[in-house]
Task: structure prediction
Amino acid sequence: MGVLDGKITIITGATSGIGERTAELFVEAGARVVIAGRRREVGEAVAARLGQSASFVRTDVSIEDDMKALVEGTVARFGRLDCLFNNAGSGGPPVSITELDIAKFDALMGVLVRSVAIGMKYAGIAMLKQGSGSIINTSSIGAWRAGGASHTYCAAKAAVSHLTRCVAIELGEHGIRVNSISPGAIVTGIFAKGAGLDADAADRTTQGLMPRFAKAQPIPRAGLPDDIARAALYLASDASSFVNGHDLVVDGGMIAGTRFSQTLAGRREMYAALKAEIEGG
Result:
């Protein structure tokens, strides 16, 4: 038996990367998965590959009517909703606050924050009727520290993490858990999309990130979509039945601090420079 046997789940942003791997893992664990995304051809291909336990619904998560139809359609088809994974995302290159394009700011906030609020609204309506459920929102270590991504992205993810906590203390009283996951340097196409590549091309660039991301945190390998998918599986399952209002950081230790070997190397360099100065003086 799988840990999600019989559970009805929705995963947004599931046509690639973290969402796609999570859909695979949820199906393996026994769930029925509704895959949501904007790329119909890609989404239908993913659903077909996963078999009868998966289906695709074309959805723009920043549009309330689309999200409403996604959730209500799922409930109408299966009779319930056990888990919503608000995972759809987008990015962009860092720019100075003095060069901020407000239209792009609003659009990114729509994808990263408004969509999460909309998803929780309609999932909440469905889950309140059944008295149970798990909502998972994708945040980021950008919510914990500045400088790793654009101002807009970091601010949006900080909003997601806190909105998660706000909703968790409401819905938790009714048996509904609300948590977020904050990935670190995970090899996905979002980075290439932020650089301006179209989605299909961006998804093919991920291997080039592996060596760079392997050095980004104390654990000496790149983060993978599977790392986040397994965290989502835990939060979707009954194994996390007492976890609520939590932001689960999955980053290989990145926000814990600088890699110790780098600290030692820097300290030795400083000591050598001080010694040379003293001896030279």
Observations:
- The beta strands are 8-12, 32-37, 54-58, 83-86, 133-138, 176-183, 247-250.
